[in-house]
Amino acid sequence: MEEVKKQFDQLSDQDKKEFIKSISPEMAKICQENPNEMMQAFMPVCMDMMPQMMNMGMQMMQDSKMDMSKMMSMMMNMNNKTGDTK
């Protein structure tokens, strides 16, 4: 796993984004197969990232002159496009 991480670290930012995009369907499949295990494994990482993500979201809203209702609508549309059938 360390070798894979080293290879990933050596990619350009654009290549990292493309790689993450390419493995997203498989990640979603793994999460759907055992959501509790994945939640337990990734919750600490997500909580550590939360302040950065909130700052990024707020900056996006300010930059685009978007209010909270527009942001929520955009997020709901993104959720619908991923095929979420709950």
Q: Which terms summarize this structure?
A:
2 domains; mainly alpha; globular; 86 residues
Task: Quickly describe the structure.
The chain has 86 residues and is mainly α. The chain has helices at 2-9, 13-33, 35-63, 68-81.
Q: What report would you give on this structure?
A:
By secondary structure, the chain is mainly α. The chain folds into two domains: 1-33; 36-65. The chain is 84% helix and 0% strand. The chain has helices spanning 2-9, 13-33, 35-63, 68-81. The protein is globular. The termini are far apart.
Write down how many β-strands occur, each being a DSSP E stretch of 2 or more residues.
0
Strand fraction equals under 5%
Class by alpha and beta content: mainly alpha
Give the overall average pLDDT: 83
**Terminal Cα separation, in Å?**
33 Å
Instruction: List the domain count as a whole number.
Output: 2
Radius of gyration computed on alpha carbons: 16 Å
Give helix % range: over 70%
Count the helices. How many? 4
State the shape: globular
Secondary-structure element sequence? Answer: HHHH
Largest sheet, in brief, is: none
Low-confidence stretches: none
